[in-house]
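Run log, item B.
One chain of 150 residues. Sequence copied directly from the ordering sheet:
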Amino acid sequence: MTTPNASWSPSEEEASDVLLAVRDLKTYFPLGKGWLGRRDWVRAVDGVNFDLRRGEVLGLVGESGSGKTTLGRTVLRLVEPTDGSIRLDGVDFLALKGKALRQVRRRLQVVFQDSYASLSPRMQIGQIVAEPLKLHHIVARGETKDRVLE
């Protein structure tokens, strides 16, 4: 997953086809004060680099606890990265805030392996399909049911 040379950058032709570019992404979580008052950190994601081109699908495989979920959550900015860069369609995704961030998130989706964590067994399929339509204001209130049935 991590490229050996973090300073590598694609050619102009390759860059125009890159939808998502992640460079040296790091997500650390504090553990508290360690020995001699120094703060200890868990390095959940440490120096990840990849490009996702239009039409590609990325599958992330690794051992339990290796940071797969944290990487997905960090790329979506559900967890803020400690360092690194994320460019979506050439735009600095980490610079987006508020409404602009919400609008761009509408284009992103991570499908986690555990379907029970992704799809609530307490909800009917129509409710699950309607949820993002309502959350992202994709359709007018009165049109949600018709759109779900569609």
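Observations after the first pass:
- The first helix runs from residue 12 to 17.
- The two ends are 38 Å apart (CA to CA).
Flagged for discussion on Thursday.
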